[in-house]
């Protein structure tokens, strides 16, 4: 049986893979309970975590279900915003790529720096 954090990660991953927009119905809560083979309490805890992150909301009543609240999270790489929607890469891979790019940019900046640039940095 998976832990609540693992269920949260699985649900978030599915939301990203399905590229759902804000307001789109994700699933019925009962469907998620059955699919993950967990108790209602355990699923409610996972859904609560995602509600707190503003990823989804649960709507009771005739039009009930689990719905998408906000677009997926983003990662800021310098001045570039990368949204996780539709990306098939892991966040760790993105941060590793950022580190490699920053090293390369630093090297180029050092090679092209003028004496005035060095004084400005000091």
Description:
This protein starts with a helix and ends with a helix. It has two domains: 4-68, Winged helix-like DNA-binding domain superfamily/Winged helix DNA-binding domain (Arc Repressor Mutant, subunit A), CATH 1.10.10.10; 74-121, no CATH class. The protein is elongated and about 70 Å long. The protein has helices at 4-18, 29-36, 40-52, 91-112, 115-121, and strands at 25-27, 56-59, 65-68, 74-77, 80-83. Strands 1-3-2 form a three-stranded antiparallel beta sheet. Strands 4-5 form a two-stranded antiparallel ribbon. The chain has 122 residues and is of the alpha+beta class. Helices cover 53% and strands 16% of the residues. The chain contains five helices and five strands, in the order H-E-H-H-E-E-E-E-H-H. Keywords: DNA-binding, Transcription, Transcription regulation. This is HTH gntR-type domain-containing protein. Pfam families: GntR. Residues 1-71 form the HTH gntR-type domain.
Write the layout of secondary structure elements.
Blueprint: H1 4-18, E1 25-27, H2 29-36, H3 40-52, E2 56-59, E3 65-68, E4 74-77, E5 80-83, H4 91-112, H5 115-121
Antiparallel strand pairs: 1-3, 2-3, 4-5
Helix pairs in contact: 1-3, 2-3
Domain HTH gntR-type: 1-71
Keywords: DNA-binding, Transcription, Transcription regulation
Protein name: HTH gntR-type domain-containing protein
What's the alpha carbon Rg, rounded to whole Å? 21 Å
Low-pLDDT stretches are none
Looking at CATH, the homologous superfamily of the largest domain is Winged helix-like DNA-binding domain superfamily/Winged helix DNA-binding domain
- Given helix and strand content, the structural type is alpha+beta
Distance between the termini: 56 Å
E-strand count: 5
Specify the number of helices: 5
Q: Topology as H/E string?
A: HEHHEEEEHH
Largest beta sheet: strand ordering: 1-3-2
User: What's the number of structural domains?
Assistant: 2
**Average pLDDT over all residues:** 78
Shape: elongated
Q: Say what oligomer this is.
A: single chain
Strand proportion, as a percent range, falls in 15-25%
Per the CATH scheme, the topology name of the largest domain is: Arc Repressor Mutant, subunit A
What CATH architecture of the largest domain would you give?
Orthogonal Bundle
CATH class of the largest domain equals Mainly Alpha
Q: What is the percent of helical residues? A: 40-55%
Largest sheet report: 3 strands, antiparallel
């Amino acid at each position: 049986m998976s832990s609540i954090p693992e269920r949260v990660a699985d649900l978030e991953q599915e939301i990203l893979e399905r590229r759902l927009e804000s307001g789109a119905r994700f699933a019925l809560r009962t469907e998620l309970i059955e699919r993950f083979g967990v108790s209602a309490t355990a699923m409610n805890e996972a859904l609560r975590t995602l509600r707190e992150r503003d990823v989804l909301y649960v709507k009771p009543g005739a039009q009930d279900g689990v719905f998408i609240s906000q677009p997926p999270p983003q990662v800021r790489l310098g001045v570039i915003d990368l949204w996780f929607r539709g990306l098939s890469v892991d966040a760790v891979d993105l941060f590793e790529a950022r580190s490699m790019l920053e090293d390369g940019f630093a090297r180029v900046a050092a090679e092209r720096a003028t004496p005035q640039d060095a004084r400005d940095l000091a």
